[in-house]
Amino acid sequence: MTFDTLGLSDKVLSAVRRAGYETPTPIQSQAIPVALKGRDVLGIAQTGTGKTASFVLPMLTRLERGRARARMPRSLILEPTRELAAQVVNEFETLGAEHKLTVALLIGGVSFDEQDRKLDRGADVLIATPGRLLDHFERGKLLLTGVEIFVIDEADRMLDMGFIPDIERISSLIPPRRQTLFFSATMPPEITRLANKFLRDPERIEVAPPNTTVDSIEQVLCYVPKNPKDKRAALRKIMSEQPVQNAIVFCNRKRDVAILQRSLKKHGFNAEAIHGDLSQHQRMATLDAFRNGEITFLAASDVAARGLDIPEVSHIFNYDVPVQPEDYVHRIGRTGRAGRKGYAATLVTSEDMRAISAIQKLVRKEIDWLGDPPSSQNREDNARRGRKRGRDKARDSGDAKRKKRSAPARPKKRTSDEKPAKKDVSGKRTSSAKEAPRKNAPVVGLGDHVPDFLKRPARP
Ligand code: AMP
After folding, report:
1. How far is ligand 1, taken at its centre, from the CA of residue 63, in Å?
2. Atom 10 of ligand 1, nearest CA residue
3. Average pLDDT in the chain
4. Domain limits of the chain?
5. Atom 19 of ligand 1 has which residue's CA nearest to it?
6. Overall fold of domain 217-379
7. Residues 370-374, mean pLDDT to the nearest whole number
């Protein structure tokens, strides 16, 4: 299959050749002909499968006819994050190089002025995050009645980020005769409901079963210590053993992103951090430096996970196991893109075993362990060793006390799950009132003082 057979315009085909795309990816070969006919599409595809071009290319072809009017964009693409929105603009710049289309980017964190000017001039393509788009609408700067093509990208991420009410509102502002292209990596029930609501007789295109990870990614799990210092050392060891070209290291918490980045830097790794607390300007600058190869390791939180379009990411390291199994799919989707080889290593502590099972269930795959797997036998041994250490400690302190008191009888050790009231002073279990504590015997743990309540006979 080649791009020539899909029905794209000559201008678009020439840009595709210049971009170096030789064969369409499965989502492209299936979605492009349908979208060119003006039909609605429900695309179930992960980032990295070429899904952006699967809507950008037919849009470019269809938008060749007609002109934009002031404040009335002809098409709208909604993206969950600013980074992803900015990357779709890049894709339009590459693939629309031969078109004179005006593309406006409406994202938060930057001033309204430049965005207003673009809207006033008339935008063929509006690429926006939901919040900023509604801000412009409410300020009276925007009319959505001219939108002919409406794209909702990364719908499941929109759901995670709480954007669904905004999207429903935006959708109600666009005339129903529009074409809707709806993309999601996963199809939880809420997203199916939305798709049914927004789409008219859509062509459902699923390039890989939902929640599967691409085969070109080598995935491994590494059992590591829980304490942060040892865990970071384990990460450095794994990273040093890999031929890393560039890598994203994911943490669950923003705070840990910053700590990890500083630690990596201290140990000589060329690492910077990206997370939701940084300004838009800082995030873009860091991302650019990462793309250019000035930075090799990017410590990141999940906010940065979606839609980072960096084709050459060779490695993903999950410093933390993601809380949501779906995030695992999205995180490792940054590597092994468009058929390239990728590598994803996940650090697993004794507390993460349940989360790992959920991930394996979701991706329908047993992920291999790098080094020794934490077999249930190992975990049992560790637990037993922990209990033994506890007993030894108790015995040592008991010996010390006994030496001081030179008590006649050796008291029986008490474990945490034994109730003191049920034992007599010599350590024997009691079961009746007759066996209640004797008055003058040595008392372990309470010294020589016997509280009154212990002197009272126990009720049978
Ligand atoms: P996406 O899934 O849209 O994020 O695309 C992932 C990466 O694959 C992007 O860097 C695209 O530039 C690249 N790409 C998209 N389509 C193709 C293709 N047909 N051939 C080669 N690379 C592609």
Report:
1. 21
2. 311
3. 82
4. 3-206, 217-379
5. 24
6. Rossmann fold (3.40.50)
7. 83
Looking from the CA of residue 3, the nearest atom of ligand 1 is 19
**How far is it, in rounded angstroms, from Cα 284 to Cα 440?**
77
Other C-beta atoms within 10 Å of 451: how many? 9
Closest to 129 (Cα-Cα) out of 159, 176, 94, 167:
167
Alpha-carbon gap, residue 297 to 419, rounded angstroms: 53
Q: How far is the CA of 24 from the centre of ligand 1 (A)?
A: 9
- Residue 32 neighbours by CB under 8 Å, 6+ apart: 6, 7, 8, 24, 54, 57, 58
Lowest mean pLDDT among 54-68, 91-105, 165-179, 272-286: 272-286
How does strand 217-223 pair with strand 75-78? unpaired
Q: Residue 93 C-alpha to ligand 1 middle, in angstroms?
A: 14
Specify the ligand 1 atom closest to the Cα of 21: 20
> Is 3-206 in CATH node 3.40.50.300?
yes
Length in residues, the chain: 460
User: Would you state the structure tokens that stand for residue 202, as one six-digit string?
Assistant: 């859509």
The owner of tokens 């050796």 is 410
Tens-place pLDDT, residues 195-221: 999 999 999 999 865 456 667 789 999
Q: Which atom of ligand 1 is nearest to the CA of 22?
A: 20
The tokens describing 433, both together, are 């009132």
Average pLDDT over residues 397-419: 37
Beta-bridge partners for 316: 248, 344
Q: Extract the runs of DSSP E, i.e. beta strands, from 295-410.
A: 297-300, 315-318, 342-348, 368-369
320 pocket-lining for ligand 1 (C-beta < 6 Å): no
Percent share of the chain, pLDDT over 90: 55
Residues 78 and 55: their CA atoms lie apart, in Å, by: 12
Q: What global pTM score does this model have? A: 0.59
Q: Is the pLDDT of residue 13 over 60?
A: yes
Q: Quote the pLDDT of residue 340.
A: 72
